[in-house]
Design goal:
The complex is a heterodimer of chains A (294) and B (297). Chain A has 294 residues and is mainly α. Chain A has 14 helices and no strands. The two termini of chain A are 62 Å apart. Chain B has 297 residues and is mainly α. In chain B, helix 9 runs antiparallel to helix 10. Classes of the chains: A mainly alpha (294), B mainly alpha (297). Chains A and B meet through helix 1, helix 2, helix 3 and helix 13 of A and helix 1, helix 3 and helix 14 of B.
Chain lengths: 294, 297
Amino acid sequence: MKYCIALIVLLLVFSFFPVQAALRLDGQDQELRTELDFILHLITREDYDASLYLLERIGDAGRDWSDSLNFLSGWVMYRQKNLELSANKLLKVGKESPVFYKSHFFGAYNLAHIGQHQEAQKVLYNIPVASGSMHEALRCLQLSGLALLQNDLDEYFKYSMSFVGEHHVMVEQERNMESHRRRLEEARTPSPLVAGMLSAAVPGLGRIYAGKTSEGIISFLYVAALGFTSYDFYRGGGAKSPMFIISAGVTGLFYAGNIAGSAVAVRRKNQEFRYEMEQRILFDMHIPLRNAFN
Amino acid sequence: MKWNNVFCLTCIFLCATHSIEKLSAAEDVFEKANTLFADGYYFEAAIEYERIIFLSESPEVRVQSNLKKAESLKQLGSFGRARSDLQRSLNYRGNDSLRLEVLYQFAFCSFMAGFSFEAYATLLHLRNVFKEPHEHRIYLLESLVLTDLMHWEDLRNHLQNWMVNYAENESWTQKTLQAYDDILDKGLRALEIDPERAGILSTFLPGSGQFYAGEAGWGILNAFSQLASLAAFGVMVYNGYYIASFFAGLGPFQSFYFGGIRQAGDLATKNKNSRLNELQTALAQFFFEVEAGLLDY
């Protein structure tokens, strides 16, 4: 009899294995969860192409999973620096999702990075934040950064009033935004027209005005040397001498080129300054997001 | 007694079926990935191998899968990725043949990804762990790595060691070593080109540095430009255009003169690098031929 009982127990134990397997197979959710775990593993290993391939293969897995899938796709694209598509995916994450704030703040940042400042502002306005919360401070910082990117100092002051210096994840960046604002305010933006006129008066002076002193001196020396050469040919052969005509033509070309070059140099200098400031502002918008959500 | 027998037989039956199920599951673990690989879907195969690494609890299966993944990545030309993936298995201390394979593949991928020093260090480690890993592919890889690192003396010793281990025919060994010496001597002679010397030559005789660097065309052009600008200077001085002669004659001359010196050095450096490439390619070709010969032997 005791063998009979032991046999029944044994059969029960072994029959449990197929039941367990069946349960495992039955749960499609479980399968998807395992797949997402694997995708997370790939993301950790920075295998973004493979992660994206698997996410695309999953496709539409129903409403329950859409937030997770959109977030992961957006996050992978963000890591791949495909910011437009990343923003598109991240901003689809719903309010109920635990990664809603992360998705929307990063989505707005991605839009700001690709120059879609207005859209980024709209996204930030639509993020529901509790008064006095870290999310509110973060939103203020992002909006102030966007205002600086658009060179809108009035708008900047509106948000910088709310810099409280209470949240360690962004204390330094709040200070940096203030210093960016000062640099933008104090920055002298040279005019291409003035640079051209200065170079017309004294060759090379426009480039010096643009802050490119060595280029200015070299330009001056070139035009002066050509001018002296033309004068020499004029002195020796007169105004109709072919050598004078050729030499004067070359001098004229260099002179005109120098005027145009000065205007271009000023525009380039302005662009360089603007680009540098944009990178600094975007950097200081980015760091608090990484600190707050990673 | 009867119940006793029934109980024992049932136990044996259940355990046997359960074990067979497990065993076939282990064999099947690579099936999907292997099929993808065999069909040429290397990217998908690499993902499936990674999935096995992620899911498996057996270190041996994980290492096997990692090696297969590296194979897929190699097919895709992603040697750097394969190398960083294989790094995970470097601490594996199980099956010796697997360990040797990991070290070899890591060295291979490092070499292909341009990390020759790391490849060499791995091969030294491999030789240290497996005292005499008599495999042609390891000898060949080490030859290629040493060629890339330009360790000519080590390379000769390595070749000698390879030949001694495989070719019992002494005269063949000597012939092969002689062939290596000939290629190397010829190549090193061609490499005796000094950028500094090219610059000095052009300082004293315009265009000669370019000739020395093996670029006669540039030499003639530079010498002619300097002569033409000097001639223009002379003609202008003769005609009384002193200021013009200074700017339009001497100005271009100094540009051609100093530019020629710099160009001679640059050309010498460029040609030296290209000759070094030629030597390394010739040696690599030679080692492939040696391997083919030894395999036939």
